[in-house]
Structure formats: structure tokens, C-alpha cells
Design brief:
Elements (H helix, E strand, L loop, with lengths): L41 H32 L2 H27 L7 H12 L1 H14 L5 H30 L4 H26 L4 H26 L4 E14 L5 E16 L5 H4 L3 H9 L10 H12 L22 H34 L1
């Protein structure tokens, strides 16, 4: 088959692969450039060129992201960081559960519980390492930073996956939880990578950027939960409730359905829904909320995973018939994991936008002074 000839003397896209039209010139012996005439269809050709351009842009960004991530993959320090993060998650989960077992808070199911809690605690290293890697790898394109961050997150997940599967298989735990943990770890590394990149772009010097990145990581990994706990006592209030009948419960003993009868009376409730959204952005709690969908309700630690969701749903989940409203009248619950991911993305967008604006101001100032 004859190839499409080059036109070096023209600047109409002939030397750009994304603007070549397969079959151009084979029917009427005229090249099809997307202009009107010779039976061409301008809207369709324009759409083809636009799609080809977007595809080329994405491929270019993916190539740059892969080359950037490959530099990390060739570093022994990168893999040591991944292994250390997984070890910290596993060790923290085992130590916490051993302490809870000694105090009689959970049954004798250490392997299964360790598998579940370790999967949730992987959010910690994903967030911290994501900020560090994003701080060290800043690019002009947000697309490149997201893709490169996702690749590094996938590497962290690949290191953690064998340990999760080993614990899950040995304890008979839900292996789908390991898959959910992989997806969330990749997302967390990518999102927190944007926070790290934005922190670095906010300042000309590295030290203030490190301080800002550290503050962000500390807030999302501890500060938001501490703030939620401090605000919880202020959510207690009086509300009117009636008597629940035909009560249905799940395997964990939580009320899932009920009807209301009788007159209203005053009860004291805690409106946890007013502050629970603050803790939703915590990486471990976010991952735990996702994992709650894959863990049976009768699991010893299932209540820990679903606790944030029930807190975000409000007092009607614990004290039914508030205002005489039965379970059928309650608004559908918003997945708390989506709220947390939205808050993280919002912070990342604000920090990154501020960093780019400040960086452009510095460039303008330098050019004027020079």
C-alpha cells in the first residue's frame, strides 16, 4: 500500500501524525485536510482531529509520567520506603489489636482482625509517601503529576498486596478487601502527591515548602480526627422521639429498619453528622469506610470500619424515630468515603493552584527586576 507523501514546504499539519487521515487521496487523488470541498465532511474531520489531538496529549503525558516514575523505581530508597510503609501499617495493626485483645475488647481472632485493620492502616503510608514523592517530583502538567503519582501508588500497593493476601488467605478473610485497598492506596498517593507538589511550588526555598507539606500531612493523618473529637461534645442536643416498633437489625446488632408509633418525647442525642465530615478525609478512615463494604457485619472489627459512616449518618441511626420519622423517611446515606476523597481533592486543588500562582508571580518579578 502506498504511504501518504510528506509535504515539507507546508505548515498545515502534514508532518504531524495526529492530523493524517487514513485513506486521504485514494478516491479523488486529493489530500483531505479537513477543509470543505471534494466530498469532505468538516465536522467529522474536525472531531477526528480533536480526538486524535487529545489522544496524542494523553500519550505524551503518560510517557512523561512513566519516565518520571521509572526514575523512582530504579532507586533502592524508593523501595525501602515502600517496604517501611507496609511494615509500619502491619506492625501498628498487630500492636493495636494485641492491646485490644489483652483488654478483652475483641474476640480471639487476631489473624482476621490484623488483615482488616492493616488494610485500613495502609492509608497512612500512602498519604505520607504521596506527599514526599509529590514534593520531589513537580511538573508543569497536573495530568503528568497525577499519572506519575498513581504509578508510584501502584508500586506501593504491589509491595503490600502479598502480605494482605497472605493474611487474608490464612485467616479466611474477605480477599476483595485487598483489592479495595489497592485502589484506595493508588488514589491516595496521587491526591497527596498534588498536595506535596503544591507545597513545593508555593515557595522559592525548599524549607518553607517542607513545613507546609508537613502541616498538611499532619492535619490529614491526625489533626482532623483530633478536631472532630474536640468538637463532638458540642453536638449534644435535645430532640423529640417516639417509640420504634418492628425493629430490624443487621448481624452486628445495628438497627436497619423500624416504624414509629406513640407521642413524641424529649431525648438527648449527639448530632455526630455535624462534625463527622471532618474525619472523613483521614486516609485510614477513608480506606476503612471503603473496606466496610467488603467485611461481613459479624466480623470482630467490622464496627470499627463502619463507625464513621454511622456517625456521618447522624443520630437517627442510633436513636430511631427522631421527630417521628421512620427508617423509610430517612434520606439516603451519602458514602463517607466520597466525602473524604472530595475534601482531599479540594485541598490538593487549592494548594496546587496557590503554588502555581505564586510561582508565576516569582517568575514575573524576576523578569521585571532582571
Amino acid at each position: 500500500m502506498a504511504g501518504i507523501p510528506d509535504h515539507p514546504g507546508r505548515d498545515d499539519g502534514w508532518n504531524e501524525p495526529e492530523y493524517e487521515v487514513i485513506g486521504g487521496g485514494l478516491v479523488d487523488d486529493q489530500p483531505r485536510t479537513g477543509q470543505s470541498g471534494h466530498g469532505s465532511n468538516p465536522p467529522r474531520d474536525a472531531g477526528y482531529k480533536n480526538a486524535a489531538f487529545k489522544n496524542a496529549v494523553f500519550k505524551n503525558a503518560a510517557g512523561i509520567a512513566w519516565r518520571d516514575a521509572r526514575k523512582s523505581f530504579s532507586s533502592w530508597l524508593f523501595w525501602l520506603s515502600c517496604c517501611s510503609g507496609v511494615a509500619v501499617a502491619g506492625g501498628t495493626a498487630a500492636g493495636l489489636l494485641a492491646w485490644a485483645l489483652r483488654n478483652g475488647w475483641i474476640g480471639n481472632a487476631m489473624p482476621a482482625a490484623t488483615f482488616v485493620i492493616m488494610a485500613a492502616f495502609l492509608g497512612f503510608p500512602a498519604a505520607v509517601l504521596g506527599v514526599v514523592w509529590g514534593f520531589r517530583h513537580v511538573h508543569e502538567s497536573v495530568r503528568v503529576m497525577l499519572l506519575a503519582g498513581a504509578l508510584r501508588g501502584l508500586a506501593l500497593a504491589v509491595v503490600a498486596l502479598p502480605f494482605l493476601l497472605m493474611l487474608g488467605i490464612s485467616s479466611g478473610g474477605p480477599l476483595a478487601l485487598a483489592g479495595a485497598a489497592v485502589v484506595v492506596v493508588v488514589l491516595e498517593v496521587a491526591v497527596f502527591g498534588l498536595m506535596g507538589a503544591g507545597s513545593r511550588a508555593c515557595f522559592a526555598a525548599a524549607v518553607p515548602g517542607v513545613a507546609l507539606a508537613s502541616v498538611l500531612a499532619a492535619f490529614f493523618c491526625a489533626g482532623n480526627v483530633a478536631l472532630t473529637v474536640l468538637l463532638l461534645p458540642g453536638t449534644t442536643d435535645l430532640a423529640s422521639a417516639s417509640v420504634p416498633v418492628n425493629v430490624e437489625r443487621d448481624d452486628a446488632g445495628r438497627i436497619t429498619a423500624y416504624e414509629c408509633v406513640g407521642s413524641l418525647h424529649q431525648v438527648e442525642v449527639a448530632h455526630t453528622d455535624r462534625v463527622a465530615w471532618l474525619a472523613a478525609s483521614h486516609p485510614a478512615l477513608l480506606l476503612a469506610s471503603v473496606g466496610a463494604e467488603f467485611v461481613p457485619p459479624d466480623n470482630d472489627v467490622a464496627w470499627v470500619l463502619s463507625g464513621l459512616q454511622f456517625a456521618a449518618d447522624g443520630p437517627a441511626r442510633e436513636v430511631p424515630c427522631l421527630g417521628g420519622v421512620s427508617s423509610d423517611g430517612l434520606a439516603p446515606a451519602v458514602p463517607v468515603a466520597l466525602t473524604g476523597l472530595f475534601l482531599q481533592g479540594l485541598f490538593a486543588a487549592v494548594v496546587l493552584a496557590a503554588g502555581r500562582w505564586l510561582a508565576s508571580r516569582r517568575v514575573t518579578t524576576d523578569s521585571v527586576s532582571g
